[in-house]
Amino acid sequence: MTVANKDRIRALLKSIETGDPGPVAVVNEAKYIQHNPQTHEGSEGLAALFKRLSETSPRVNIVRAFEDSDFVFGHTEYDFASRKIGFEVFRFEDDRAVEHWDNIQSRFGPNRSGHSMVDGPVDATDLGLTEQNRAFVRSFVETVLVGKKTDQLSDYLADEGFTEHNPHLSDDAGELRDMLEKEDEGKRRVDYQKLHRVLAEGNFVLAVSEGDNAGVHTAFYDLFRVEGGRIAEHWDTTEKIAPRSEWKNDNGKF
What we know:
Blueprint: H1 5-18, E1 33-34, H2 46-54, E2 59-68, E3 71-79, E4 83-93, E5 96-106, H3 130-146, E6 163-164, H4 173-181, E7 183-184, E8 187-188, E9 190-201, E10 204-213, E11 216-227, E12 230-240
Parallel strand pairs: 1-5, 6-12
Antiparallel strand pairs: 2-3, 3-4, 4-5, 7-8, 9-10, 10-11, 11-12
Helix pairs in contact: 1-2
């Protein structure tokens, strides 16, 4: 029986908690490209690293995981020394993971509508609409977020029942618009500048973007659930990108 790549990645991430070396075999460490700027590349084997981490009693919960061709993307919560929420992206080649990106922030919330950063539906549906939903979310990010055309926000969000998981917002789409329009000294406080990648499985779509948050170079990972041709739900993480002088590998965040 063939095991789905997303389930192999679930086992890999869970092994941070258990220390089990078996799931690490999914990674081709000879080809592995690490895009977390804070992680040394090739300095320690993953099995040894995960075994060491497991001894600190971490907790790892893979909330949802999806596949898009050679990519697996997952939404995770971690409890190491502090509680974090993250998105993990892996690229596969010849049936093994060879590249990794992530975006992790501290956990906050629940928000004013009572939603946590991770609750909500977890399983992809509408698999036949994957490419349509990918194109729709790409249009939203390029038009509203990067293009700053917030007057078109209502063209993309569900008319009723929109659910927001950002810990600083609520289900009121007006708050999202206000956040996107807020300026500091004539510049958008939340400033999306470039869309790097859009991954999708069915009704779930992850957009990976770059920009500034309050003047700080930032990576934005936004997960959307599309329903009836509109965005019905949104989760995200934002993470400061360390200055180039502090990077521990040369692969770049994106």
